[in-house]
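Input sequence (186 aa), recorded before submission:
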Amino acid sequence: MAKIPEQAKLIFEGVIFDVYQWEQEMFDGTKDTFEGLRRQNTAEVIATVGDKIMIQDQEQPAKPRFMCLPGGRIEKGEDELVGAKRELLEESGYASDGWELHNVTEPNSKIDWKIFIYIARDCKKIQEMNLDAGEKIEIKWVTLDGLIEMVSSGELSHVDHHLMLELLRAKYDSDARDKLQKLIFG
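Predicted structure, token format:
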């Protein structure tokens, strides 16, 4: 929940992160310099076809291979849902007419950044993938129980931590699992 005050000065504009500094009065009346990071918001998509959920087996330069949900950066000035739809289409070739915002999280108190988690139901393949030069993605499909097990085992660790906790809760609480099943698949 990092909020960068209006009086903060942009001291570095990066590709992903911008750095801001500002003076802040302390409780004893002295002033100290504070810093904060800001980055573009991102989207994660729980994309379904039938009773399956899309997972990506992804490689990027200088990173170990990882499993994740589709998603990525929302562009400056882009509506969050529009960005989520674009990311799903680019990274998978799939689109959906059944979108629902599931949650918005702020994963780090030191960074002004939100993750918008969407559910995209009944996806259909409408084109080939349109990947960035630094992406290699293989699409895999899992059941909800398979997704829960991937999170529980650590195989799927690149997922928003609130969603990760929700999936872990579903492993041990059948009511939470049933609620999540209904939420994801309608």
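Checked by second reader. The chain has two domains: 9-39, 42-142.
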